[in-house]
Design a protein that fits this description.
Layout lengths: L2 E5 L2 E4 L4 E8 L8 E6 L6 E6 L6 E3 L7 E6 L4 E6 L8 E7 L10 E6 L1
Parallel strand pairs: 2-10
Antiparallel strand pairs: 1-3, 3-8, 4-5, 4-9, 5-6, 7-8, 9-10
Length: 115
């Protein structure tokens, strides 16, 4: 079945960096656009970044533009999110997902940014 396993989160001070990874399985990864989402404490899940199947297109939410970079390695079935200049408001559980309405989600990876 389709699985997403996110990793790389942690506790970091404001201004620091983290690199998240998402190992995808159960489908042909290279044929799907992918997205990162996040869910801050007590808030709804929100979209963070998008990447096309061959990395030809990347788009970002305004609140991460210029600080985060989405990438993928189709040979490794892995999605990445490089996060620089982290802010306390980036604190959230981060999830990867296919660019469709697949109901199942991974467990996410927690990112906590201290002031």
């Amino acid at each position: 079945q389709v699985q997403f396993v996110e990793s790389g989160g942690g506790l970091v001070q404001a201004g620091g960096s983290l690199r998240l990874s998402c190992a995808a399985s159960g489908f042909t990864f290279s044929t799907y656009s992918m997205r990162w989402y996040r869910q801050p404490p007590g808030k709804e899940r929100e979209w963070v970044a998008y990447i096309g199947t061959s990395s030809e297109i990347t788009t970002y939410a305004d609140f991460v533009k210029g600080r985060f970079t989405i990438s993928r390695d189709n040979a490794k079935n892995t999605l990445y999110l490089q996060m620089n200049d982290l802010k306390p408001e980036d604190t959230a559980m981060y999830y990867c997902h296919r660019d469709d309405n697949l109901p199942s989600w991974g467990q996410g990876t927690q990112v906590t940014v201290s002031p």
